[in-house]
């Protein structure tokens, strides 16, 4: 048993003062005053938050699951754990079938390792049932109609597929949503050219989430003079959809972040990094990288772009950077933390994480005013302690 004292506690629903007690890898209580004769980590006024939960991330630290190597998955997760992500869904790209299945085997293998520095909650498959008209950085040659997806084959490799992105307007898209929903997998409308009205229908076929709103999503078009709203408008207006938001400060300017917040409220926004292999690394401007799926990406202006600069190709951010950007956009710190902890955990039905609350896993981080993470713990075990706050007793 130990306690964290002198911290600004973000539960993440509110900011509190007091002492957080940890025992047996769980949060035991939040008390107004420290306990006597119980070892303490003196946070020195730092913020105490649940560990971040990233449910859409393709790589980090130079590694990706698309290599098919479980060690690369572990290294990717460690890169994000150093920046406060204690729970993660490694995310696949659309790729040739053998590469895609190898990636799922790699994630399954990494899960079995039970690394104490992070939790792999399963996998997020972004595609391959995506619309070529909204391919973005996905490999066009690897895209399929939803009707051609053999879901059971993927589940036989990795039963813990938690989310799949697909375009509901394509052949078999609605039926795939129903299959996913019936198995407890979140069906997310992704890389989709659907109309608003198709997105309304998709709600009745299992779709409940929208992948990186504004990115690879249709918007308003005109047909015969009439305006027809698209996926973006559906995401903003239909309460039944949660929306994933890349809060790296590049994909969306502050004004759009504020608009999404006004339309959806903090409880329906899920912050994602959509990080590629370069997330969590010191990148050199102008670096060109070929992804495992064959698509080239350019690092420029703090973001990954297609080499022709027509679109972004993913981010190089970590979750702590997203929190910083959201607060700069005028979102309160507790609400930004909510979008990166409780919301993603609840979205994929991951129990026992995402809150500082009695009975929850003691996955927590300490960070400063600039959201620089200096201590990370998973199930109460300290993984990172830059300022030696926990001293030798807890390391």
Please name the fourth-level CATH homologous superfamily of the largest domain.
Metal-dependent hydrolases
Question: How many beta-strand runs?
Answer: 23
| Biggest sheet overview | 9 strands, parallel
Structural class estimated from helices and strands: alpha/beta
Query: What's the domain count?
Result: 2
Shape category: globular
Describe the model.
The protein is α/β, with parallel strands linked by helices and 395 residues long. The protein has 2 domains: 2-49 and 356-394, Urease, subunit C, domain 1; 52-347, TIM Barrel. The chain is 25% helix and 28% strand. It contains 11 helices and 23 strands. The strands form 4 sheets. Strands 6, 7, 8, 9, 10, 11, 12, 15 and 16 form a 9-stranded parallel beta sheet that branches. Strands 1, 2, 3, 4, 5, 21, 22 and 23 form an 8-stranded mixed beta sheet that branches. A 4-stranded antiparallel beta sheet has the order 17-18-19-20, with no helix packed on it. Strand 18 and strand 19 form a beta hairpin. Helix 1 (70-81) packs across helix 2 (97-113) and helix 5 packs across helix 6. The chain is globular, with a radius of gyration of 20 Å. The model has no long low-confidence stretch (mean pLDDT 94).
């Amino acid at each position: 048993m130990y306690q964290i004292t002198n911290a600004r506690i973000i539960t993440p629903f509110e900011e509190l003062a007091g002492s957080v007690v940890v025992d047996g890898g769980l949060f035991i209580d939040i008390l107004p005053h420290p306990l006597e004769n119980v070892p303490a980590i003196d946070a020195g006024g730092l913020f105490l938050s649940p560990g971040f939960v990233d449910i859409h991330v393709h790589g980090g630290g130079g590694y990706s699951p698309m290599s098919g190597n479980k060690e690369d998955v572990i290294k990717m997760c460690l890169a994000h754990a150093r920046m406060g992500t204690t729970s993660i869904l490694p995310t696949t790209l659309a790729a040739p079938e053998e590469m895609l299945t190898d990636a799922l085997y790699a994630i399954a293998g990494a899960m079995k390792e039970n690394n104490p520095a992070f939790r792999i909650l399963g996998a997020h498959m972004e595609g391959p049932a995506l619309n070529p008209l909204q391919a973005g950085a996905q490999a066009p040659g690897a895209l399929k109609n939803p009707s051609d997806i053999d879901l059971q084959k993927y589940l036989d490799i990795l039963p813990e597929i938690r989310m799949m992105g697909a375009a509901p307007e394509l052949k078999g898209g609605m039926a795939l949503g129903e299959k996913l929903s019936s198995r407890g997998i979140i069906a997310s409308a992704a890389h989709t050219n659907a109309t608003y009205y198709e997105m309304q229908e998709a709600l009745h076929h299992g779709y409940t989430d929208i992948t990186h709103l504004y990115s690879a999503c249709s918007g308003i078009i005109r047909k015969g003079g009439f305006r027809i709203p698209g996926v973006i408008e559906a995401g903003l207006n239909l309460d039944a959809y949660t929306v994933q938001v890349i809060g790296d400060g590049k994909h969306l300017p502050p004004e759009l972040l504020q608009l999404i917040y006004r339309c959806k409220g903090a409880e329906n926004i899920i912050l994602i990094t959509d990080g590629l292999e370069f997330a969590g690394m010191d990148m050199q401007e102008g670096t060109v990288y070929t992804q495992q799926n064959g698509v080239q990406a350019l690092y420029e202006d703090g973001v990954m772009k297609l080499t022709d600069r027509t679109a972004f190709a993913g981010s190089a951010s970590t979750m702590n950077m997203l929190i910083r950007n959201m607060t700069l956009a005028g979102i309160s710190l507790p609400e930004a933390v909510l979008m990166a902890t409780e919301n993603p955990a609840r979205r994929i039905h991951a129990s026992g994480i995402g809150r500082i609350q009695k009975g929850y896993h003691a996955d927590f981080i300490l960070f400063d005013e600039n959201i620089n993470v200096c201590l990370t713990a998973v199930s109460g075990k300290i993984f990172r302690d830059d300022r030696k706050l926990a001293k030798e007793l807890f390391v």
